[in-house]
Amino acid sequence: MIKHKILLAEDDLFLGKLSQKKFEMSDFSVLFLKDGVDVLSTAKKEKPEVIVLDLIMPNKDGFQVLAELKADEETKKIPVVVVSALGSEEDINKVLALGAKKYFIKSNVQLSEIIKYLQALVA
Amino acid sequence: MPKTYSKQEILSFLQKTSLMSVALCQKDNKPLSTILLFALDDDFTLYFATISSSYKAKAIENNKNISFSVWKPEEMLVQANGVVDQITDQKAAEEVVDKIAEAAASLDDFWPPVLQIKGHDYSVYKVKINWLHALDLSSKNLVEKTSLFTEVELYDKT
């Protein structure tokens, strides 16, 4: 079975590892990064089918990462799914305007919902 | 009669269970009970992690003794005591978080409470268990004047 490749950027080590394990159990292969710095270069090199992006991260935040991904010819078509603790309408609208495909608020979502969405996205 | 268990049966039970009820001791001898995810090695070394600024981490700074219970209705109860040591090596700590995440991933739809916007810093610990016993919860038989628990010596006393 071909595994769909996800790039996961999440600054919380435990949430990141837990998400990685759950995604892998659902037949995704996962590249896990703990900050935003390497997302653009890794996305260019690894060509993931989806990027799952946190917003508040050290060194480079998700807003900036998303803007860079969408400004780059090589990465602009990769769908970006934002999973963030931020939940204001302003943040959600900003992220969607930057080109994110979907926004999940961490406190309002189950991992299974995210997985279901990702499976539909890569199907 | 209730079953008695081998070390291996208890180990298998604990390794397929990921949540434990924990008791710690805070300053001024105030008790603190909580639940925690854990992972267990084949030699009964138990691992857990908590947010570095949490009451749990502060309690462990104060007192390294821990008592915990793991149970499943109609199956088994395990109660144990041990001593906690923090894992300070970053690589080793990340490996432990990986083990705990692996154990948590086996729980249906587990997602920890998201308590702050920024990611947490975690303190990671291992527990040397110094006492453990197990109780068969599947038996409906009653006994008198006999302990229903299986006492287990985890380590040679030599």
How is this structure best described in words?
The complex is a heterodimer of chains A (123) and B (158). By secondary structure, chain A is of the alpha/beta class. Chain A has one domain: Rossmann fold, CATH 3.40.50.2300. Chain A has five helices and five strands, in the order E-H-E-H-E-H-E-H-E-H. Chain A has a five-stranded parallel β-sheet, sandwiched between helices. The model of chain A has no long low-confidence stretch (mean pLDDT 94). Chain B has helices spanning 7-15, 55-62, 90-105, and strands at residues 19-25, 31-37, 39-40, 46-51, 65-72, 76-86, 122-136, 149-152. Chain B is built from three helices and eight strands. Chain B is α+β, with helices and mostly antiparallel strands. In chain B, strands 1, 2, 3, 4, 5, 6, 7 and 8 form an eight-stranded antiparallel β-sheet that branches. The mean pLDDT of chain B is 89. Chain B has a single domain, classed as Electron Transport, Fmn-binding Protein, Chain A (Pnp Oxidase, Chain A, Roll), CATH 2.30.110. Chains A and B meet through helix 1 of A and helix 3 of B.
